[in-house]
Amino acid sequence: MTSNLTAPMDLEESLSNLRRQTGEAVAAASTVDELAGVEASSVGRESPIAAARRGLGKMPAEERRDAGRLINEVAKELESLIARRRGELALEERNAAIEAEAIDVTVDYMELAAGRLHVIQQVMDEVCDIFIGLGYHIAEGPEAELAWYNFDALNTPPDHPGRLESDTMYVDYGKPEDEMLLRAHTSPIQARYMEQNDPPVYIVAPGRAYRNDTIDASHLPVFHQIEGLAVDNSITFSDLKGTLAEFARQFFGPETTVRMRPHYFPFTEPSAEMDVSCFNCDGGESSCRVCKGVGWLEMLGCGMVDPNVFAAVNYDPNEVTGFAFGMGVERLAMVRHGIDSIRHFIDNDVRFLNQFPG
């Protein structure tokens, strides 16, 4: 754009050339930056339009008015042309950016499967629901526990083998005399609850427990328990057996029967282990995958609460009686589903987990 607009005789022709040249340059501009260069060279401070305006003072007075009007008309026309093209280019650049960043929603995508509760959690929830239906409620407590609640309050003597480091995981924290440890069972919840609540008491205590065990087909160092406690006036062993028999019928099936075998636990007296009749056969079938022909399945430990436990939590053993029971959740799941190794629960193998949709 080299038109000289200062000469009055060729002003109109020069403006016409400027229109043509600027129109071609504007149309050829492919970016906003290129258009800015066209704008500067056509209507900017150093452009032919600016030079023409500066030359108006040299024109005769009778020509100056018409020349000024013509220069302004051309300047507005070019500015309008440039502004329109700028809008077009900006739109093109914006659309190109959107297209470059767009997500093709028609492309196949990986859909993650919906999660589900682990089979251990399913069993825990089902057992707790059964006892809630029998009038119990859920109690919880800390997993890092004091030896007093884990052992002493439960009538476990200082020389009991379960208190050795070979069995119990102790924690290097707090005062050494407190013997901080990872609870070996959920029974400490019972002691804590009785310490803070007056009878009657009807609770179940689900949760993790810890033992210094090597992983094998039937042992894990971290496992799950559900313990129960009932304390009231005139509770008998018959109440214990009736409660657990009803649990067994609801969990294993309405035809399930139970039997009690004498056993020993420090915190109950008398104590027993409870077996349930095999729910997979009529009893004693040698080919049964569940009971292996025995007809009974060892399920849990239970008994009447020892008076020393009541004394430790300031209950009067002459006024109240009660029973307690504890069951391993992994054991319940293995028996019900015919699982041959406890390792399956921690392998995180989806082929195993998908068998229990819940």
Helix and strand arrangement:
Elements: H1 11-28, H2 32-43, H3 48-54, H4 61-101, H5 119-133, E1 137-138, E2 144-146, H6 147-150, E3 180-182, H7 187-196, E4 201-210, E5 222-232, H8 237-252, E6 258-265, E7 268-277, E8 296-305, H9 307-312, E9 321-328, H10 329-337, H11 350-353
Parallel strand pairs: 1-4
Antiparallel strand pairs: 2-3, 4-5, 5-9, 6-7, 7-8, 8-9
Give the mean pLDDT: 88
CATH class of the largest domain: Alpha Beta
What is the count of DSSP helices, taking H or I runs of 4+ residues?
11
How far apart the termini lie comes to 80 Å
Fourth-level CATH superfamily of the largest domain? Bira Bifunctional Protein, Domain 2
How helical, in percent, are the residues?
25-40%
CATH topology annotation of the largest domain: BirA Bifunctional Protein, domain 2
Order of helices and strands: HHHHHEEHEHEEHEEEHEHH
Name some characteristics of this structure.
disordered N terminus; BirA Bifunctional Protein, domain 2; 7-stranded mixed sheet; 40% helix; two-stranded antiparallel sheet
Structural features, described:
This protein is of the alpha+beta class and 358 residues long. It contains eleven helices and nine strands. Strands 1-4-5-9-8-7-6 form a seven-stranded mixed sheet, with helices on both faces. A two-stranded antiparallel ribbon has the order 2-3. It is elongated and about 130 Å long.
